[in-house]
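User: what does the whole thing look like in 3D?
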Amino acid sequence: MAMMPVTDSLYLLAESREHPMHVGGLQLFEPPDGAGPDYVSELHRRLVKADDVRPLFRRRPMNPVSSIGQFAWSNDNDLDLEYHVRLSALPRPGRVRELLELTSRLHGTLLDRHRPLWEFTLIEGLQDGRFATYSKVHHSLLDGVSALRLLQSSLSEDPDEQDMRPIWSSQLRDNVAGRRIQPDEEGGALVGLRNAALAIRDIAGLAPTALKVLDDAFREQSAGLAFKVPKSMFNAAITGARRFAAQGWPLDRIKNVRKAVSGATLNDVMLAMCSGALRRYLIELAALPDKPLVAAVPMSLRTDSARTAAEGGNAIGIILCNLATDTEDPVARFTEIRESMRRGKQVYHGLSQLQITALSAIPMAPLAMSMIPGALRVTPPAFNVMISNVPGPHNQLYFDGARMTGIYPLSIPYEGQALNITVTSYAGNLQFGLTGCRRSVPHLQRLLTHLEDSLAELEKALIA
Amino acid sequence: MAMMPVTDSLYLLAESREHPMHVGGLQLFEPPDGAGPDYVSELHRRLVKADDVRPLFRRRPMNPVSSIGQFAWSNDNDLDLEYHVRLSALPRPGRVRELLELTSRLHGTLLDRHRPLWEFTLIEGLQDGRFATYSKVHHSLLDGVSALRLLQSSLSEDPDEQDMRPIWSSQLRDNVAGRRIQPDEEGGALVGLRNAALAIRDIAGLAPTALKVLDDAFREQSAGLAFKVPKSMFNAAITGARRFAAQGWPLDRIKNVRKAVSGATLNDVMLAMCSGALRRYLIELAALPDKPLVAAVPMSLRTDSARTAAEGGNAIGIILCNLATDTEDPVARFTEIRESMRRGKQVYHGLSQLQITALSAIPMAPLAMSMIPGALRVTPPAFNVMISNVPGPHNQLYFDGARMTGIYPLSIPYEGQALNITVTSYAGNLQFGLTGCRRSVPHLQRLLTHLEDSLAELEKALIA
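Assistant: Here's the predicted 3D structure for the full assembly of 928 residues, as structure tokens:
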């Protein structure tokens, strides 16, 4: 029996019908040349036979229905792989729209706690001949970054590599580097709310003087932002059903916009696209707040302290970004976002890794608190929407010769945070995954059109 | 606000991830002549527009997360019909096997309590050109018999009738009789556990003398059975995932077997098929108890009391049937089942409707108790498996010219009752629907082969 860290069990404790606590990924593939109509079902048959399941994918909560006390893991020695590895199909006409509808439904149902907390679905029936995979794993097992890294390990840069192992296999190699994945690498990376939960633990152990430093730093960030977080339609109680929308944009288009504004980053352009899209979406629904929306943006930050450099030198900080959604002019909006991100990073300058983590926890604390059943949310939202940029693979990847054409993250809407935007890069594209509460975020797919319009508007204004 | 009867709210109170409390129905249809490849998606588009939703299908629990006190209904005035009415497809090769896998998955997920408690899924992609519908409704809204009756009302005996209304429409007529369904007919019929829950309420109000009569009658039934209920693999704690298997057999084959044994009913043949199939299944798994399995069989019983005749004259009684699974010879087994059913009905002879209901509640009480969260199950199983025969339509039915070729009920496995068998008749066939807990009842589909073998064995032994 392995006791579960408090930060992991929090995701089991906080889970309810209204608040599924799993992350997901949608991948699109082109079948290899010469693949017949039964290619996907044959692949499914082969994958179901890959029963050398690594320990992480055998874990299940020891007492599935416990709601108090600490959780422990047990191993499922009688794993029912046909339950976890599924084959599904799209109804006609098999457009991306039908794929997103199915993915939304799959992402909105709870994982079965009597079994290891993951599902993997092969999806056929796309009209353009591609197929998709949707994978779903509980946040208590893996966060989004780790899941993406593990997925990458199950793919190859070599289109001719055959007999590859699926993501749950204990024989999985890091195909890109050609090495075996070590067990202690699983669940290693931390980001977002998991970070916050960890940070709350860390803050509890901080000396009062350290807290004073953080308090000053947070005041600086707040003062620098010089605005208050408005209430918005995204900051409502949520229900269990989900809407998911996804699309990719060429990185070259985003790079061209970046070049036109000095000091801007690709991340700033991504945030400006989101800002413009959210502004258009909220105007359509007559729900745009007078004050600008504030995004929580997890960022990887280099720290200057020698001590933290020895520890690895990187830390995730949460930056509160003024999305300037009250500003109509796209260039002025973009400039304001770039400025807000620059100021946010400055606040962290010179802080230690622990201090960065602790400072990041301050805006996340109300959200982490809202996960605890029965805890009252006494504070207004510390931000309106979480926007994460998770680094993805640079090169074209393949599974058994099938080329992956896209990869889109599905994240967790939380109580009071009905919309999550997560983007990842892959092979020359920036891929957006938008996950929302079906009730609180109607017509989520319109945000895709608005993202395109928002990027086109920046191109028109900035590129001759 | 409408308060919910205690018997209805019991199904909401008892529901958990492990114990979804909805019933379902799987229907198969042949598209009309000349239907194109987009027939099903066009039908879906039309159905999603049928937003004249009757009150029953607008109801949702007022406080979805309450777990104590009485529930109340509220109306969803902002019904999201695209959420409730879904379009899905089978992966290749689109056999009945793929259909049953999808149906099992759909039946194993919880309904969203923030919305009216029903879903309706159109399923395309069967290799033989047919399409299917799977409907799912919470037991607190409708029991299986009422759901089947309502479904029948949404179909027509006329293959040329067009522009028909779906089951949730407020304009639904009883197409068979050509009349409008009255609101007070909804949720009228009672059977099985719902009956038990009602009966427990009724018993509480009975005079002690009446209880004495019942106690004597129950002793008689038990004595007549002259056996104890064994523990079996079906009487275990269950999990939330489901397996569903379904198949139809021509009524003519069953009638021929009945004719060969004097005094036997069609129901007796059905029970003998189940008995032989369960015996084969349990032998394969080396899990056949030495003592015979006992089935709980809900039966419609005519009562002799004038008072109950004035009230409608029919009551549902639960008969405990000795399935004689310890007997190898199929004819001896069949005879024993027929005898056990005859004795069971005799016990009820001369009892009033209320007495029948109360007597039926005695074996069901431990099951009803097990539904109450936290209630200890202090008694051994009162029976091993519930086998219900729900009367279905006699004639061929159509929806907008699409002929219904089969209809199969999906019921609720309960704690300690991991397998449910429900059969219904339709247009010359007897249709079996087997719903089991995925973990406790492995390889459920093998029972279909065993049902056929069991029928063939009776035919071989009894028909020259």
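In plain terms: Residues 357 and 424 of chain A are 22 Å apart (CA to CA). The mean pLDDT of chain A is 82.
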